[in-house]
Amino acid sequence: MTTVAQLRKAALGLPEVEEGTHFGMVSFAVRGKGFASVTKDGQVQLQLPDAAAEEAVAAHPSGERLERMGKPIGFRVPLEDINGKDLNALVYASWAHRAPKRLAATLTDAQTAAEGPVAGLLTRIGKPATRALLVAGITNLEEVAGRSAAELLALHGVGPKAVRMLGEELRERGLDFQQ
Fold first, then answer.
1. Is residue 109 domain-resident?
2. Which of 99, 123, 144 represents a domain boundary (last residue)?
3. Measured between alpha carbons, how far is 153 from 164 in angstroms, rounded to an integer?
4. In what helix (H) or strand (E) does residue 128 lie, and over which residues does it extend?
5. Across the strands, what pairs with 108?
6. pLDDT tens for the 179 residues of the chain, in order
7. Residue 179 lies inside a defined structural domain of this protein
């Protein structure tokens, strides 16, 4: 069972997402294009391509196709009927479907880098922080040293713990954050 808070965390962890309301529902958009919302009765609605929506319907029997004016546009399922891992994957798929292609490609590249040797030491700080740094073009400790701690904290996904860990690593190598 998932909650609106978990949906919020998954959606806001993606680049350029804004939370708002749409017809009284909590909703999430990337560059003004809605991709996820929650109805007042607890149904999460996700804009998905047809193939992804069909897979979601097959995997979640309590879910259904989401249609607007007779045209299929995604998938709807009660939040209580979906686990967090599946919700995260569907939110990402919905975001990628609605985000500008360049932005989606940037995140895909960052995720690939976070799983490979490019990120190197940065992966120690956790996936959300690593992804945020990579999306910002920061791929090594020298580039981290070129930023202030406040700049890093301003990146969505980078928290105080990640900044503390990065600061420790910088100091071990005789570096520090930019002032």
1. yes
2. 99
3. 10
4. helix 127-135
5. none
6. 789 999 998 898 888 899 999 888 999 999 999 999 999 999 999 999 999 999 999 999 999 999 999 999 999 999 999 998 899 999 999 999 999 988 888 777 666 655 554 445 566 787 778 878 877 778 788 888 899 999 999 887 889 999 999 998 888 889 899 88
7. no
State the SS3 of the chain.
CCCHHHHHHHHHCCCCEEEEEECCEEEEEECCEEEEEECCCCEEEEECCHHHHHHHHHHCCCCEEEEECCEEEEEEEEHHHCCHHHHHHHHHHHHHHHCCHHHHHHHHHHHHHHHCCCCHHHHHHCHHHHHHHHHCCCCCHHHHHCCCHHHHHCCCCCCHHHHHHHHHHHHHCCCCCCC
State the residue for tokens 């922080």.
Answer: 129
| pTM metric for this prediction | 0.66
Domain match, 65 and 108 both: no
Assigned token pair, 38: 């929650």
DSSP 8-state assignment for residue 52: H
Residue indicated by tokens 């997402």: 17
Which string of b and e fits 17-36 if b means at least 16 CB within 10 Å? beeeeeeebbbbbbeeebbb
Looking at the structure, tell me whether residues 61 and 80 fall in a common domain.
yes
